[in-house]
Amino acid sequence: MISSAPSTLRIAVAQLNPIVGDIDGNLAKAREARADAARHGADLVFFTELFIAGYPPEDLVLRTSFVTACEEAARQLAADTADGGPGVIVGVPLRRASGLHNSIIVADKGEIIAERHKYDLPNYGEFDEKRVFQASPEIQGPVNYRGIRLGIPICEDIWGDLGVCETLAESGAEILLVPNGSPYYRGKMDVRQQVVIRQVIESGLPILYANQIGGQDDLVFDGASFAIGADRSLAFQMSQFEEAVVVTTWKRGGDGGEGEGGWRCVDGPMSRIPDAEEADYRACMLGLRDYVNKNGFRNVVLGLSGGIDSAICAALAVDALGEERLHAIMLPYRYTSKESLTDAEACARALGCRYDIVPIAEPVEGFTRALSHLFEGTQEGITEENLQSRSRGVILMAVSNKFGSMVVTTGNKSEMSVGYATLYGDMNGGFNPIKDLYKMQVYKLAAWRNSTVPPGALGPSGEVIPKNIIAKAPSAELRENQTDQDSLPPYPVLDDILECLVEHEMSTEEIVARGHPRETVRRIEHLLYVAEYKRRQAAPGVKITRKNFGRDRRYPITNRYRDR
After folding, report:
1. Distance separating alpha carbons of residues 456 and 186, to the nearest angstrom
2. 264 CB contacts (<8 Å, ≥6 apart)?
3. Chain segment 163-221, per-residue pLDDT in tens
4. Are 376 and 509 in contact (CB under 8 A)?
5. In what residue span(s) does the CN hydrolase domain sit (predicted)?
6. Cα(167)–Cα(142) distance, rounded to whole angstroms?
7. Which residues pair with 151 in a beta bridge?
8. Counting C-beta atoms within 10 Å of the first and last residue's C-beta, which end of the chain has fewer, N or C?
């Protein structure tokens, strides 16, 4: 290492919330972050993957005009560095002779001094980058930034087994800076840190992992940027689910001072990482907030039934948006119990939101009369039950149309898995914050929220979901004395079978070996498959588990396979 190279580098990690397609807004956000970093003495501002475009941009990058506009914005940000302040590393799509790339540019002193392209494109789960991007033709070497050789692998480049980090180390890199668009799922923090530690061991270099934050359709990016030192220890940890620009200080030398030796972080935050319930709740809250706000809805409306699912969705809406932006509507029919009426009102009162009652007897009976000549001679059954749900859906959508509010739909993953939901009824809506939570997880989060107000929540403290809602047997209340368990196994049993089938793709024999009756497993597998057509028409919702419906699990609708 040449003696004139600096021994200190102050890197500002920009853990921010870009909006896909908002090029001007993302550029403005980057400029504001750079100005803030400059005031705190940063030498370099490090942004996340495809920050200028927003991540993931999906087919937007197939539009030449979009890619051109992104590159122009990146050039404008690069030109800003002529002021003598910090340089930048920022993610941007670039079209070059080798193809369309997921790239970064490095800019300093008013110029783009380097660009690097992603080498390993992910094509699994929620990722399908091979569909729109071309991989870098080669593993590109380190970038010389003010005398320091920085390796900049992009997200998946450190997750695979292509030796990107090791190659960068062999090429002379001193620090590895990794821009990421890594979505949340339960336990993801541990997975990320293990991936980084493995690459630290293979490369012998410290790694700074910068991750974006924010909701994008059904994905939530949780931030939680961090660094692992060459000694495999946690060098710093940024907060989860919160935007921040944090300046970290790096020094060369084993003692952190002048002279030869590796780099280590000597100053950075050590933020607390939430436990599982808090993390899941905050992911749902952030996903709902960003979906509503980024898509320009003024407020939301939901049907508050007196049950656990609508209650927790109401709490999430108030926490995400504020009590004044939620309109809760109870839609009772002859089978709605007095208990449900009391519980729904108590929940709305505890949350402080607007609450109205709109009886549905007239529309239900109107539909029944209109269909009477077609249904003559048939027995009443699920069709008549579903007319109740569909009448509720029509009313909620009418309120949405009239007042510009988005309908929050409230079905949990257990129900969505087996089709225990009415298409064009309780499945109506624009977004579902609990779509990827199994029923028992909903209960856990409800109890957790009653004892804790999460950071950033706009809702009140105390018991916001009445204890009776949590304690009583769940019911759709579409007929006399109905409970969910009339049609389904107990939820602890159902959830375990579904997790085996969905998350782990286990065989019938493997699930039976866990102690579940064979006929129950076969029935749940059948219900899971035949409900696929419903799920294709369901509203998007926050990804919480390793395998959600839609992005991760993509089964055919027409499907005769059954595991025998």
Report:
1. 20
2. 206, 229, 230, 231, 235, 250, 251, 256
3. 999 999 999 999 999 999 999 999 999 999 999 999 999 999 999 999 999 999 999 99
4. no
5. 9-252
6. 10
7. 176
8. C
Cα–Cα distance for residue pair 38/392, rounded to 1 Å: 54
Non-local CB neighbours of 335 within 8 Å, separated by 6+ positions? 388, 477, 478, 479, 480, 482
Vertex 55 angle, CA 124 and 209, to 5°: 80
Q: Which residues are annotated as a binding site for L-glutamine?
A: 124, 182, 188
Q: Looking at this protein, which amino acid is placed at residue 61?
A: V
3-state helix, strand, coil in the chain (%, to 5): 40, 20, 40
Q: How far apart are CA 63 and CA 311, in angstroms?
A: 42
- Whole-number Å distance between alpha carbons of 23 and 82: 21
Using CA atoms of 242, 310, 526, 123 in order, give the dihedral in degrees to the nearest 10.
Answer: -20
The closest of 140, 217, 133 to 183, measured between CA atoms, is 217
Torsion sign, CA atoms 348, 349, 355, 357: positive
181-to-121, 222, 436, 524 alpha-carbon distances in Å: 12, 9, 20, 35
Cα torsion 506, 507, 508, 512: sign: negative
Number of residues in the chain: 564
State the DSSP H helix or E strand holding residue 180, giving kind and residue range, or none if neither. Answer: strand 175-180
Residue 1 has pLDDT above 60, yes or no: no
185-412-385 Cα angle (round to 5): 165
Q: Which residues are catalytic?
A: 49, 118, 155
Which residue numbers belong to the known binding site for deamido-NAD(+)? 386, 415, 534
How far apart are alpha carbons 115 and 140 in whole angstroms? Answer: 9
CA angle 25, 31, 34 (to 5 degrees): 140
Place of tokens 């286990």: 506
Annotated binding site for ATP: 303-310, 410
pLDDT tens column, 407-432: 999 999 999 999 988 999 999 999 99
Q: Which helix (H) or strand (E) holds 176?
A: strand 175-180
Kindly provide the residue ranges of all beta strands, DSSP E only, lying in 262-371, ordered along the sequence.
263-267, 300-303, 326-330, 354-357
Annotated binding site: 124, 182, 188, 303-310, 386, 410, 415, 534
Q: Quick one: three-class SS letters along 386-447?
A: HHHHHHHHHHHHHHHHHHCCEEECCCCHHHHHHCCCCCCCCCCCCEECCCCCCHHHHHHHHH
